[in-house]
């Protein structure tokens, strides 16, 4: 009888420990709590977990997160649930653990968001986040992709210096980021218009022995085009062809856009006409290609050629988009053909495309230029009715238009 009673009590005790249904006065070992949480988490028994939050520590939370490598959604739910119930447990350790899990499962957006919050909300420096990721790297069986993700997170929040510090720190420690992280950082430098720094970083990357890929070459071409060094960009372009790395549509479009921006429309057209031949038939012009050409010809006043190109793209089943129409409308308006510009506005609506602020701004600007204040007011009314957001150019155009109308009324 005594033995039976002891067995019953022991079974009851283990059951309570395993399910964490009730708080236990005696200390519970970390392993028991860990196993119990994992078991109940798999069943999503949040009520059982909530009753035993006092037993949950930072170390246990991190272990649980790493345990659910193959269930990233559940790991993220647990992380968020813990934060809602007991925010103090959202330590750097647990945050890094869930980041490793998310990166390993290729849920990069969620991982980048958490990294960004650690730096912007929690005020941690990129190097502090890097150190924490390094500390939990082995426990969570992570991959170098987590360091690439940290560089991307830095560039997303505008931490240019931080991103570079992370790359250099890893380089010194012999745990290098991949070419993808370098490309991301180089792309960021172009976006923030730090072209001089771009070339310094690019040369350093090459000196470390990194093998450039097509994305790297595209960034080099882009940087040269921004510096109006079209001939050098062409040299790089031919170097790509000779290196055995096939250029992609982005490469060609950057070259075409660079030529158009510099007014070399002959080169731009040549690139488009020979695109298929130079890519061994793998690449054809797309809407981005034609939009660059149309924009280039509109800017030099050759609106008829731009119209021919628009017709050409439709013949080969490339649908004009809002940018195509916005460019054409601006081109016609600039050339003094406002009726044609308005006709295109109607056409794009018939095709199911909603004019954006660029389209409306262009029409209003040129109507005011011609002195048609009432016409511009009607266009603005239509813009308001369609709830198109106003931008700074809209406000500037309206201010000049109202001033023009006021001066006209004063003089009459």
From TrEMBL:
PPR repeat segments: 213-247, 248-282, 286-320, 321-355, 356-390
InterPro entries registered for this protein in UniProt: PPR_rpt, TPR-like_helical_dom_sf
Superkingdom: Eukaryota
Pfam families in the record: PPR_2
UniProt keywords, alphabetically: Repeat
Family membership: Belongs to the PPR family. P subfamily.
NCBIfam families documented for this protein: PPR (TIGR00756)
Protein name, as recorded: Pentatricopeptide repeat-containing protein
Native source organism of the sequence: Salix suchowensis
């Amino acid at each position: 009888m005594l033995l039976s009673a002891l067995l019953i009590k022991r079974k009851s005790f283990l059951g309570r420990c395993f399910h964490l249904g009730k708080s236990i006065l005696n200390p519970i070992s970390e392993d028991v709590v860990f196993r119990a949480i994992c078991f109940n988490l798999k069943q999503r028994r949040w009520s059982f977990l909530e009753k035993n939050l006092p037993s949950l520590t930072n170390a246990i939370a991190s272990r649980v997160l790493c345990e659910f490598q193959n269930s990233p959604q559940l790991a993220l739910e647990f992380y968020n649930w813990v934060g809602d119930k007991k925010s103090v447990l959202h330590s750097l350790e647990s945050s890094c653990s869930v980041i490793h899990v998310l990166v390993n499962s290729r849920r990069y957006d969620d991982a980048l968001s958490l990294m960004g919050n650690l730096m912007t909300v929690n005020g941690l420096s990129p190097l502090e986040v890097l150190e924490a990721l390094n500390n939990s790297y082995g426990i969570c069986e992570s991959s170098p992709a987590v360091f690439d993700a940290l560089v991307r997170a830095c560039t997303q929040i505008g931490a240019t210096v931080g991103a570079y510090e992370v790359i250099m720190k890893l380089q010194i420690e012999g745990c290098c980021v991949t070419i993808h992280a370098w490309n991301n950082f180089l792309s960021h430098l172009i976006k923030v218009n730090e072209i001089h720094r771009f070339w310094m970083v690019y040369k350093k990357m090459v000196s470390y022995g990194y093998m450039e890929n097509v994305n790297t070459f595209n960034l080099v071409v882009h940087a040269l085009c921004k510096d109006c060094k079209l001939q050098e960009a062409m040299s790089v372009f031919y170097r790509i062809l000779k290196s055995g790395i096939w250029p992609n549509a982005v490469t060609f479009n950057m070259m075409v856009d660079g030529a158009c921006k510099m007014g070399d429309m002959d080169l731009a057209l040549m690139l488009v006409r020979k695109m298929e031949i130079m890519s061994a038939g793998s690449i054809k012009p797309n809407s981005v290609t034609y939009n660059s050409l149309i924009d280039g010809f509109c800017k030099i006043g050759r609106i008829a050629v731009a119209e021919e190109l628009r017709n050409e793209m439709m013949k080969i089943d490339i649908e004009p988009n809002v940018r195509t129409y916005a460019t054409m409308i601006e081109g016609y308006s600039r050339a003094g053909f406002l009726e044609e510009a308005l006709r295109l506005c109607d056409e794009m609506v018939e095709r199911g495309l909603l004019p954006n602020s660029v389209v409306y701004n262009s029409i209003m600007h040129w109507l005011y230029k011609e002195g048609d204040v009432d016409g511009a007011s009607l266009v603005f009314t239509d813009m308001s009715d369609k709830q198109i957001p106003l931008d700074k150019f809209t406000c500037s155009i309206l201010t000049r238009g109202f001033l023009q109308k006021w001066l006209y009324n004063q003089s009459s």
